[in-house]
Amino acid sequence: TVFIKGLDNLIATARSNKVAVLLGFQDFSQLIRDYTDKEAKVIINTVGNIFSGQVVGETAKTLSERFGKILQKRQSISINRNDVSTSISTQMDSLIPPSKISSLTQGMFVGSVADNFGEKIEQKIFHCEIVVDARKIAEEEKTYRKIPVITDFRDADGIDRMKEMVQENYNRIKEEARQIVADELERIGSDPNLKHLLELNKQA
To answer: Which of 54, 62, 67, 76 has its CA nearest to residue 28?
Structure first.
């Protein structure tokens, strides 16, 4: 619960400390379901970079609105028996319409990126395709090894030792974590530049 309510603060705080936060979900509706409508809107509006594949419905509409609009020129021709007339008009249309986002094929993406001072990006909104070398991927997949599946925890006498083995692994990992913390505290305590952190931690 604490994490859910503080996710928007995490993004902003991490950004100010030059830490990148990556959020991934299949649809905005999942974000709303798990974080409530109010929190989801804050999170969506806080992130600076967006990369999306094919989505539909409200998610496509929200993304289209996020990408903004562009001035489009339209030309219409009227034909009758005596004359042919042409009219040209301009109007604001979505830069990437929801229908376009809803019909993206595999490998096609839309999105927007944020820039920094001294690193200005002229083309912030994109609609592109990731070119995949299928032959190289197929060659690489040939060298893949199957992950071994351990289904038998019986010992030499045929007795099932699954509970004992799981508990043993749990205890080992727990002890290793304790040792890592102890070693790190010892390192900090022996470093004059970091020793004051321990005092601050005790006061807190």
So the answer is: 62
Q: Convert the pLDDT of each residue in 84-114 to its tens digit.
A: 788 887 878 888 899 999 999 988 999 998 8
User: To which residue do tokens 């990369």 refer?
Assistant: 51
The two three-digit tokens of residue 29, written as one number = 């509706």
pTM as predicted: 0.55
> How far is residue 95's CA from residue 65's CA, in Å, rounded to a whole number?
9
Count Cβ atoms below 10 Å from residue 65 Cβ, excluding itself: 11
Q: Which residues contact 187 (CB under 8 A, 6 or more apart)?
A: 194
pLDDT, one tens digit per residue, over 120-146 is 888 888 888 888 888 999 999 999 988
Distance between CA atoms of residues 160 and 94, nearest Å: 63
- Do 67 and 126 meet the contact criterion of CB atoms below 8 Å apart? no
- Pair of tokens at residue 202: 């005790």
DSSP letter assigned to residue 146:
P
Residue 149 per-residue DSSP state: -
Contacts of 121 (CB under 8 A, 6+ apart): 113, 114, 115
Q: What is the DSSP letter of 197?
A: H
